[in-house]
């Protein structure tokens, strides 16, 4: 790739194609900046992206990115990886073939966040499901990003959390009857009232106290 980002190499590659040759000629003075950025990325990646396979060649691909070791390089890698997943989903995958993308520790992928959101919003039309895992709703991103993600998600699975309000609210509320009995001197007087109140469908205290492996599934 770096060798091809050279005016002479591009001119040879597009020889006989007038429009592309003119474009290469117009970019001649700008290619040095592109070469520098690509060279920095390649130096960081080393041979990590070299290979003869991609997602369409396997049943399962597991990719780990050292986000805590080299966060800036990890961001660049994730942008490339998730952009390629998007291209695979929309262009290379067999029409109608199902696929699933699981992103663990979503908070760690600041560099690929936009690509992941795009996949969640538009991948289902191409048969690709997306699962995003995070330690809390705040880890999903800023307010706008969380709104996009939660609006596009088919379901939210809430495990134990000390701050469940934002996710529990997605389940909405229901009208329930609450009864109250009047007592006097320790004895029931026989008078009572019944009041209709709104109560959350998901009890926040139940989410806070959930045992390991228990979860509330909020869908439809």
Give your account of this protein's structure.
By secondary structure, this protein is an alpha+beta fold. The chain has eight helices and six strands; from the N terminus they run ααααβαβαβαββαβ. It has a two-stranded parallel sheet. Helix 5 (about 115-120) links the parallel strand 1 (about 100-105) and strand 2 (about 130). The mean pLDDT is about 85.
In terms of structural class, how would the helical and strand content be classed? alpha+beta
Overall helicity:
25-40%
Tally of DSSP β-strands: 6
- Beta strand %: 15-25%
- The whole-angstrom Rg is 27 Å
Low confidence ranges:
none
Q: Strand-and-helix sequence, N→C?
A: HHHHEHEHEHEEHE
Report the major sheet: 2 strands, parallel
> How many H/I helical runs?
8
Strand order of the largest sheet: 1-2
How confident is the prediction overall: mean pLDDT? 87
Beginning-to-end CA distance, first to last residue: 46 Å
What is the approximate shape? elongated
């Amino acid at each position: 790739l770096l060798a091809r980002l050279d005016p002479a190499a591009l001119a040879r590659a597009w020889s006989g194609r007038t429009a592309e040759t003119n474009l290469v000629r117009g970019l001649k003075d700008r290619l040095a900046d592109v070469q520098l950025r690509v060279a920095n990325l390649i130096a960081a990646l080393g041979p990590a992206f070299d290979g003869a396979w991609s997602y369409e060649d396997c049943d399962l691909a597991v990719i780990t990115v050292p986000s805590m070791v080299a966060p800036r390089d990890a961001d660049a890698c994730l942008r490339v990886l998730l952009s390629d997943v998007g291209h695979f989903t929309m262009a290379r995958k067999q029409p109608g073939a199902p696929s699933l993308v699981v992103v663990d520790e979503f908070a760690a992928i600041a560099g690929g966040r936009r690509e992941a959101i795009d996949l969640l919003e538009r991948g289902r039309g191409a048969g690709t499901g997306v699962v995003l895992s995070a330690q809390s709703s705040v880890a999903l991103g800023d307010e706008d990003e969380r709104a996009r993600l939660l609006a596009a998600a088919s379901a939210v699975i809430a495990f134990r959390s000390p701050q469940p309000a934002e996710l529990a609210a997605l389940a909405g509320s229901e009208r329930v009857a609450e009864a109250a009995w009047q007592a006097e001197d320790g004895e029931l007087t026989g008078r009572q009232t019944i009041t209709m109140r709104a109560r959350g469908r998901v009890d926040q205290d139940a989410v806070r106290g959930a045992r390991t492996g228990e979860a509330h599934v909020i869908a439809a």
